[in-house]
Amino acid sequence: MTVTSILIPHSGAGGRLADQLPMLCTHLAAAVPYEILAIDAAGATQAAPELLALAETLPALRIFQLQAKASLAAALSVGIEASQGDRLALLEAGRRYRPDELQHLFRSLSRADLVYGRTRRRGWSKAWLRVARIPRWLLLGLQVRDPDCRFWAARKEALAGLNLPRGMYRYLPNLVAARGFRVAETVCEPSSTQDALDDGWPNPGDLLAAWWLVRRTKPVEFREITIEDRSDGHDRRRANILELPSQLSRRKSA
C-alpha cells in the first residue's frame, strides 16, 4: 500500500499552517494512509500552540522543530529523512497552492520520479526569468523552468539520502536527474502570493557548487547475488556486490 508524506517546511508559520491543514486533510482522504510533516526552521524554542492543539485531534500530523534558524534546504532535508511514505509532496504553509492539485501531481509520477510545478508567468516577469536562467542553462541544462517552485511530488527513492546545503534547493531537479531519475514538470496555478521560507538569494557560488555536485554524481548500479541451497549439502550463502560500472571491473560469480 502506498503511503503519502506531505512535507511543509515553514518559518514560524504555525498559525497559518493550522488554518491550512483541515482543508488539506479533506483532499488527502483519497490518499490514505498519509502523514503530514510540519518542519519549523525558525529556531523557536517551542512549537506553535495552534499546531500542538491540532496534533491532538490529527494523528497524521508530525511536528519537527529545528534547534537553530535554518534555510528551506535544511528543513527539506529533515523532512525527507524523517518521512515514512513511498511518495512525497512539498507544500508551503498557507493556501498559496491548491491542495486539490496534489492528485494531479501524484498521477504524473507515472511518467517521472520527480514532478515539479511551474507557475505561468507573463510579460516582464517571464522575460526576466528567461534571462536570469541563462547561466544555469549553460552549466547544468534546464530540467525544469521554475526551480524555485515549492509545489512538487516525488518518489521517495529519488530523494533518499539527499542532504541539501543552504542554497541548493533550487538545484534539486538537477541533482535528482544526475542520480539517474526522471524529472518532469506540470503547470500549477497559485491562488495567492505570500511570504514563505526561502533558500537565500541566488548567487554564482551556489551555481558552481551545484555544477560540481552534478559532475561528481554517478548513478550506482547494484545487484544481489543469492546462492541457493545445493544438492551436495553446502550451506546457503548470500552475497551483496556493489558495482560501479565506471570504476570497477565486473566480478565473476560461480
UniProtKB/TrEMBL annotation:
Lineage of origin: Bacteria, Pseudomonadati, Planctomycetota, Planctomycetia, Pirellulales
Q: Name one GO cellular component term.
A: plasma membrane
Organism of origin is: Lignipirellula cremea
Q: What is this protein called?
A: Glycosyl transferase family 2
Q: Which PANTHER family match?
A: UNDECAPRENYL-PHOSPHATE 4-DEOXY-4-FORMAMIDO-L-ARABINOSE TRANSFERASE (PTHR48090:SF3), UNDECAPRENYL-PHOSPHATE 4-DEOXY-4-FORMAMIDO-L-ARABINOSE TRANSFERASE-RELATED (PTHR48090)
Q: Can the keyword Membrane be found in this entry's annotation?
A: yes
Question: Mind telling me which InterPro entries this protein's record contains?
Answer: Glycosyltransferase_2, Nucleotide-diphossugar_trans
Alphabetically list the UniProt keywords. Answer: Membrane, Transmembrane, Transmembrane helix
